[in-house]
Amino acid sequence: MSGLVLKLAPRERVLINGAVIENGDKRSRLAILTSNAHILRLRDAIHPEEVNTPVRRVCYIAQLVLSGDADPREARPQIIRGIEQLSQVFTDHDSRSHLTLATEAVLDAQFYQAMKSLRSLLPREARLMAAAGP
Predict the structure, then answer these.
(1) 38 in Cβ contact with 17 (< 8 Å)
(2) Do 83 and 123 sit in the same domain of this protein?
(3) Which helix (H) or strand (E) holds 29?
(4) For residue 20, what pLDDT is reported?
(5) Are 25 and 88 in a shared domain?
(6) Are the C-beta atoms of 67 and 40 separated by less than 8 Å?
(7) What digits encode the pLDDT tens for the residues 28-74?
(8) Element housing 45 (H / E)
(9) pLDDT digits (tens, 9 = 90+) for 75-133
(10) Pairing of strands 28-32, 4-8
(11) How many helices (H) and strands (E) does the chain have?
(12) Band of residue 3 on the pLDDT scale cut at 50, 70, 90
């Protein structure tokens, strides 16, 4: 993640290489210079008890890589398989674009970008699940 710049809101928390860091009272910017650092904004984190839908499951695997809790080489095929399964349901052009971006990001070992692309599908997934009923 060489050259990553984090813009943090007041009191925002971020996980960097296993350490939770909280910003102070003012907005700030952090430049992360170390390649392959494990970085996760905690506001983007999905908690284990929230992993209850197909999109959330795939996002969570990417998140585990970002937090350093999963080996990228082991997670990559799981995420790709999950994206392939999601592509069976999300067939509209816009959703396919997000899935394509997520796939490309995973293949380039850009797990934050993959998670970001997948998270954009969460509102659509919620609508589909609501329409399917109980």
Answers:
(1) yes
(2) yes
(3) strand 28-32
(4) 92
(5) no
(6) yes
(7) 998 888 877 888 889 889 999 999 999 999 999 999 998 889 999 99
(8) none
(9) 999 999 999 999 999 999 999 999 999 999 999 999 989 999 999 999 999 998 888 77
(10) antiparallel
(11) 5, 5
(12) low
State the Cα–Cα distance between residues 12 and 59, nearest whole angstrom.
21
Quick count: other Cβ atoms within 10 Å of Cβ 36?
A: 11
Query: Quick check: 45 and 69 in contact, CB under 8 A?
Result: no
The rounded distance, in Å, linking the Cα atoms of 64 and 105 is 15
Domain count for the chain:
2
Per the structure block, which two tokens stand in for 117? 């692309």
Residue 42 CA to residue 55 CA, distance in Å, equals 18
Q: Domain check: are 95 and 117 in the same one?
A: yes
pTM: 0.86
Q: Are residues 72 and 112 in the same domain?
A: yes
Whole-angstrom distance, CA of residue 63 vs CA of residue 113: 11
Q: Are 38 and 68 in contact (CB under 8 A)?
A: yes
Which residue segment(s) compose the domain that 16 sits in? 4-43
